Amino acid sequence: MRAPAVPEDCVITLSAADVSKTFKQVNIHKAAGPDGLPGRVLQACANQLASVFTDIFNLSLSESVIPTCFKQTTIVPVPKNTKVTCLNDYRPVALTSVAMKFFIPETLDPLLFAYRPNRSTDDAISCI
């Protein structure tokens, strides 16, 4: 089912400069997601890829639809310690698209404080 269209005055738009700047901050040591696009490629080719991803991100925002490839996740079992004796010695790690990881924070409301790093209830109270 498709989400209702967002009114034009409420649509967030990203610029190619925003996307390029964000891609240049990618941690190149993080694993690639199911799309196979490694962070080092996003970082090295940020200026060239920015306009393409800006179009994808802005279309996604205006249509209220996230592309399927951005929603896919690969679960990888990672050992908790060096000696693995049973299944409980593993923890699941979800690998998602590196591009999507940077798309989400750019679109969050600046007044959203829950589940965000370096944000607290004190920040929320100070905005009242």
Query: Low-confidence parts, pLDDT < 50 over ≥5 residues?
Result: none
Mean pLDDT: 82
What order do the SSEs take from the amino end to the carboxyl end, as H and E?
HHHHEEHH
Shape: globular
Please provide the count of β strands: 2
Strand order of the largest sheet: 1-2
User: Considering DSSP H and I runs of 4 or more, what fraction of the residues is helical?
Assistant: 40-55%
Structure description:
With 128 residues, the protein is α+β, with helices and mostly antiparallel strands. The chain has one domain. The protein is built from 6 helices and 2 strands. A two-stranded antiparallel sheet has the order 1-2. Helix 1 packs across helix 3 and helix 1 packs across helix 5. The termini are far apart. The model has no long low-confidence stretch (mean pLDDT 82). This is Reverse transcriptase domain-containing protein. It comes from Oncorhynchus mykiss (Rainbow trout).
Keywords:
128 residues, two-stranded antiparallel ribbon, 11% strand, alpha+beta, Reverse transcriptase domain-containing protein
Concise synopsis of the structure shown:
It comes from Oncorhynchus mykiss (Rainbow trout). By secondary structure, this protein is an alpha+beta fold. It has six helices and two strands; from the N terminus they run ααααββαα.
